Amino acid sequence: MVASLAALPSDAYVPILKGKAAELGAIRSAPKNRLVPLLEFIDPKRVPALLSKAWGTEDDAVWVQFLNFEGASDSDFGTQVTAVFDQMRGKVCAVPVVTTTEEPATLAAIAGVIAKDQRGAVLRIDVEDLIDDDVDTGDDIASTLHQLAIPPSQVALVVDGGTLTGSSTIQATVAERALRAITLNDWLSVVLSFSAFPGQLGDVAAKSSVTVIPRTDAASFTAVRNNTDYPLIYGDYAVGTPGYGAAPFAPIPNIRYAAGRDWHVHRAKERKSPSPQYIALAQDIVSATYYGGPSFSPGDQQINDVAKRFAGPGNATTHLRAATSRHLHLVLSRLASLGAP
Description:
Layout lengths: L12 E6 L2 H8 L9 E4 L5 H8 L6 E6 L7 H15 L4 E6 L5 H14 L3 E6 H5 L5 H12 L6 E7 L6 H12 L9 E6 L14 E6 L1 H10 L7 E4 L17 E6 L2 E6 L6 H13 L11 H10 L8 H23 L3
Helix pairs in contact: 1-2, 1-11, 2-3, 3-4, 7-8, 9-10, 10-11
């Protein structure tokens, strides 16, 4: 169990996920004892029902962040945030995620949630802000916590390097500089996250191919952690990305499969006739040396069932759910057995 207001264990895992069907389906079947999802939602009104189904426990914390993508007024958005947490109370152990750029009414709403629930909070800071000499991030953090009326000791800090590019060595160097700008011992826990999956799969994976993509997010984190005595917690974007760009059409069928330090991306030939292509992709994976077997995760089970035609071929959403499920289980397993993601 990962309770609120408790420091995360060293082998905990914080995936940053979009609050959509595939990701929510993946966490629903994932073990909760060391998993603490940070879920981004762009439609607050749907959150209570979605989270009650996908997480549905008061014992294990889930971190919830609302993004005002619809451009609602600050007062309206703040009202929505309050209403959502009111509806989740007693059903889900939801901890609010805040940034230093929240509008006043939204920040006041989150302060009200913190005071009522007494579960602490999560503060999410971009690595770029911590290394920007033109931004007084320390003052912004202090001001935000003052308005929330909460000490750092009750706040989990997420240092987010999701938009960093370059090799794992470069990303680790930048992240280490950012961490030096923070007094790490002040916080309840400190999560360091990176993103490594490509934004446009077609840019790196050819049609009718199997492409190996290094998990540089895991490599970057390990490099940073090896250079600090503080027990940093691993975070990533799983098989997703920080962006929210929507494709205007269904993608060419693909299955993303995490294995060890790499992803193996099986990509089909074309968009038309996706069903037989998904079956063929699944068959290729279950025959590969890196396939973990159907019992490893619900995602592995789904791929096996598609390959053996025990289930339908699925679609982009169900295969993203399977890929995310596989990834979550793999990271948790590696952290538990190897001490590294």
